[in-house]
């Protein structure tokens, strides 16, 4: 979020002791969150759900580039600007800085159960893959129109143990596999953020079988992303991905 100004001044609250030096932040106002637009009556108002998902992935990628693991990614913490620009907030459970093994510490058992990666239930150190799990759950939500909040609640009761309801395929061939690979039980089996962006692109633009897509995904992530980690695969632009597909 954009920070406009910050200042310190005394603050009094009728239920709390007076604070002599209280920090105030003037931040950008975001009119809604992802939770708001996922409500059954507003779901159809989302102009491009896949592009919105891509923006969430890019936002998380920015955090990880700065060695920040959020640990509580969920729709309530995805703030949206007037044109659905994504802002990630609420870093109360975040942890920063890796150890020599590339892992992060922090208070265990934090986060929100429905979006919580399984390894966060323990007191072991974690990797950035805990955020990938949460991103995968939000992917499911973005591609699923529930008829009511009760229907959503019932689906989420079994989501962690059994996955999406039988027959759920998302919008395109490969979306179910993408969900499964983001929410794999073992952190090492989960996709990276770059791999997610590639796979989202191919699910929407490629008619290959899943096996063919796996081969292309492996090749692209190994060759293209290693050379250009900042690759842009947004819709409507001539990108390195399109050049790769056309043989240019």
Automatic annotation (TrEMBL):
Record's keyword terms, sorted: ATP-binding, Kinase, Nucleotide-binding, Protein synthesis inhibitor, Serine/threonine-protein kinase, Transferase
Catalytic activity line of the entry: L-threonyl-[protein] + ATP = O-phospho-L-threonyl-[protein] + ADP + H(+); L-seryl-[protein] + ATP = O-phospho-L-seryl-[protein] + ADP + H(+)
Transmembrane intervals: none
Keyword Kinase: yes
One annotated GO molecular function: eukaryotic translation initiation factor 2alpha kinase activity
EC top class named in words: transferase
E.C. number(s) listed in UniProt: 2.7.11.1
Entry GO terms, CC: cytoplasm; nucleus
GO BP field: negative regulation of translation
Domain Protein kinase residue range list: 1-202
Similarity section: Belongs to the protein kinase superfamily. Ser/Thr protein kinase family. GCN2 subfamily.
Descriptive protein name: non-specific serine/threonine protein kinase
Source organism of this protein record: Triticum urartu
